[in-house]
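Fold this sequence, please.
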Amino acid sequence: MADFTFDEIPLDWVEPGTYLEARPNYAQLGLLPYPVKNLIIGQILSTGSLKEGEIVEVVNADDAIALFGAGSSGAEMVKAFRAGNSTQPLYVTGLLDDVSGVAATGSLAFNGTVSAASVLRFKIGGRSVKISVAAKDDMPAIATKLAAAISQDDAMPVKATAAIGTVSLTAKYTGELGNDIDFRVDSAAAPLPQGLDVTITPMADGAGNPDINKVLDSLAQNWFTSLSVPWTDKTNMEALALWLDEQFKAMSKRDCLGFVAKRAGFSEAVAWGKLTNCAFLSAAPLKASPTSSWALAASLQGIAAKHLADDPARQLRTLMLPNVQAPDSADQWTEQERDLLLRSGCSSLTCTAEGAVTISRIITTYKHNNLGTADRAWLDIMTSATVSRIRYDWAAFITLNYPRCKLADDDDVAAFAGRLDSNGLPDNAVVTPGRMKASWAGRCALYANQAWIIDVDQTIRDSIFERSPSDKNRMQSRQRINIIGNLMVFAGSLEFRA
């Protein structure tokens, strides 16, 4: 029988006295808290104080205004995130406009006459703006009033000027981002008075997005568990997908879920969903929502991060995205379109009669394996979230319980030279494959009690632990788990007696 092992009391101490080490015992350790840390990457205006690549923690949504600039995508994203997730840590970083970027432009042209005093209401990037007009106002006067009202709201994503009855809008930032800014007459709140017409030219011609690699490279020594970005072009999407894949690898151990969103028609959304094949990136398109696409991405990130931290294996269906406005009914996806979007790698969202947007199914853009064969192994976001959570918990459990253990085979005399505590863990700092498997069985029971995995007995039988035959200091394992499913589709036959 070997002596007890102490870290602080010398084995050959002879001076009389009572000496007691105090240290935690992690044998009965419950689930370890996941180190949630969210990141938003936004585009910085010239009025913002944030430097490119600088990482700052943000508690209050208003703090992002000074960092990114009023009317910036970054400030809007932080506000959208915090609307649904006010408690988790949130950090921001960003990029300045591309030096060769071009800002998107659009316009509203007024035509006709105003027969009576009225209040005209508009939405720009989901933000409401209203003006009062009199019967005597001509079109240039109305345009001037609207441009002034837009300019008075610093949070607007556009700059406005008026000339000859037309309001010209220019995005505050350059790049394709501005093409996604929605603006419209808010007819639901106040229909245009008889005799007045507004011709809208949508935002377009924005070009030259920043290169996301510049900020991704600066994240090398940081671990963020989720992030959202506003850029949805092919180059940046592919770069983000590659970075997320690298983060998940065993030697990186910095698992991260990415979120992007896009304003797109059906065909464009299908093509967009096929741009990447990443098990850790979720892409959500909406057609003609008043809400900016980057705000949608950040809102989805906030809701997903919050609820997946509580239960990584539970689907997000029916959860509402706060402050995200539904498209008009004519612009909402049909069930068939949502099904086809899911097959192309796009997550599906639904709209309520009250104009809210809720989650239907959040998937990743992963569609096929490296050989091009169709594969649904990583389809749902819960798969990636659950695997990450179990991997982190198990690795941390090993580190806490076996930090300085020696390694022997199960049948070696060294394995029996010491004591085991009541949980089967070594008191003499020797671990064996069998004891490690026993620890794995205990953790699997814990995961099953959380309803993260099923069929625990088979999981334990299929899991193999062994000491490497070529390296006496290395234990190797193959641990198989069966992640629980979710009730998404119910198919039945309702038969009646004829």
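The mean pLDDT is 94. The first strand starts at residue 38 and ends at 44.
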